[in-house]
Specification:
single chain; 274 residues; alpha+beta; Heat Shock Protein 90; Actin, Chain A, domain 4; 3 domains; six-stranded mixed beta sheet; three-stranded antiparallel beta sheet; 5 helices; 38% strand
Length: 274
Amino acid sequence: MRYVDGPRDQDFGTWRLWQVPGLVLRGVWLDSAGRRQSFALREDYRQGARYDIQTLTVSGREPGLTCYSSSLTRDYLHLRDTLSLGRRHLQVPTLSARKRQLLAAFERNGDTSYYLSVRLNDFNLLSYQNFYELYSIGGGRHNGFENGLLDLATGHRITLASQLQSGYEPMLRRLLTSHLRRDFGKEPAAPGQSVKSERLLDLPTPDDVSFSGLVLTGAGLEGSYLPEDIVSVLGPETKVYSIPCPVLIPYCELRPLVRPGTPLARMLAARGLW
């Protein structure tokens, strides 16, 4: 395993498994000095959710444009055991209902794909993210996000904004900008220059809509940006190699912005950060 942090990287060690991945993973951990330590990892969903990711695709041609075929592919998050956990309202539609929804949303103007990933599934919080790509016929490429956050203790859908203090936006922008500059090896502001005078990253989109680049992960709050957003802050000489570009704020730094009594505050307390 290699840990990478901006321009620096360091070898910490290697995981070696003795079996095909299943409910229990057994193997040995070799650190950078060659020392060995056996391990056994077991699945535990006492504060998480069992889930599957199911993928559906529809495709077709627009009449009169026989040379162009369009498609729509979408991943769906399917939570297991919703009935036994008292989360009946979180049940996903049946397969046939999802196919009807997909057909209703299908527009024959290019290829669109939604790739779903679960970013946090612990401490009774489930955070997931759909990254979408649209390649339009006769147009260009468009990217965006569709995020979701569930409080598994109550089975309710919540927003990230509801977990943060009122007026969090300016401080959150400064934190994101600080970590962006650190990740790209940029020098801090010159002595005597106010940090407020620096160009700050915008928040990807307001959090009260579904399309947002802010998502909770196992390590912290992650903001995702397109290259033009990064260049607008760091300058035209900046080279961005990933689309989207992630910027991470660790939970220990996010903690002053978290609203007391929220599910996010509950998670930080369980981690010893509150």
